[in-house]
Design goal:
The chain contains 7 helices and 5 strands, in the order αβαββαβααααβ. InterPro entries: AB_hydrolase_fold.
């Protein structure tokens, strides 16, 4: 976790290789990547890397056209000033039965703080592990680390990435933790969304969002995206969507 400040640079290196600016791309992939239409998606702690590469004053990757946050962790340390760097479109997808990253304290909070074009998708019954490669059954796999490895999810005093980010000058909009620690909060009662359902919904929304965000003129695609989001929100009882585009 303490390698966090280096990770946006890793993203930039990958883009350099993918677009042929640096050596290492296999011949079969040459000219396969459109360097003008780059988006970055991150899950959990990878979501924090995505936040930094998208918006951080010092660490941002300027070639990105969109950011996608899947149950992104630690977004609670990012305050309104953090998002003032550029109006990069943002999509957040997060389940309300996530036991490792609390929805209200992270993604819902980011939606209020970030003054950028943004969409917030709450998956009713969605989980943290539902975004990973698990079997599709109606069981909250987030329970497993909470039951068997809760101690490993606690800060043992060696984690300093937040201090590294916060103590830079001038102020970059990084502040104190606000959301509860993993497994240390309650989630809504009720059924749990299957992993297949979670992935199907997420993929449909992500594709619609990217069609808008990566367009030559996103404003021309905005109305189509809003109609798609409205239709999903109205037709699916397990999805709640907010947008500020």
């Amino acid at each position: 976790m303490n390698d966090l400040l280096n990770q946006p640079g890793d993203i930039s290196w990958v883009i350099d290789v993918a677009t042929g600016l640096k050596a290492g791309l296999p011949d079969r992939l040459k000219d396969a990547v459109d360097g003008s239409r780059m988006a970055l998606a991150g899950h959990s702690f990878g979501g924090l890397t995505t936040y930094l590469a998208a918006y951080d004053r010092e660490l941002m990757e300027p070639r990105l056209k969109a950011a996608i946050l899947l149950a992104a962790g630690v977004g609670d340390i990012l305050y309104p000033l953090f998002y003032k760097t550029r109006p990069l479109p943002m999509l957040m997808i997060h389940g309300d039965q996530d036991r490792l990253v609390e929805y209200d304290g992270t993604s819902a909070q980011t939606y209020q703080r970030a003054d950028v074009p943004r969409v917030l998708v709450k998956l009713v019954g969605g989980t943290h592990m539902g975004h990973s490669n698990i079997r599709s059954i109606a069981f909250n796999f987030d329970n497993l680390p909470c039951w068997f490895a809760a101690d490993k999810l606690k800060d043992d005093g060696t984690i300093h990435f937040q201090a590294d980010l916060k103590n830079r000058t001038p102020d970059t909009g990084v502040g104190d933790f606000g959301a509860p620690a993993p497994c240390q909060y309650s989630v809504p009662s009720g059924w749990v969304m299957t992993a297949d359902r979670q992935k199907t919904l997420s993929n449909e929304i992500m594709l619609a969002f990217l069609d808008y965000a990566l367009a030559d003129d996103p404003d021309e695609k905005k109305s189509a995206l809003l109609k798609t989001l409205e239709s999903i929100d109205e037709a699916q009882s397990d999805v709640i969507i907010k947008s500020a585009l």
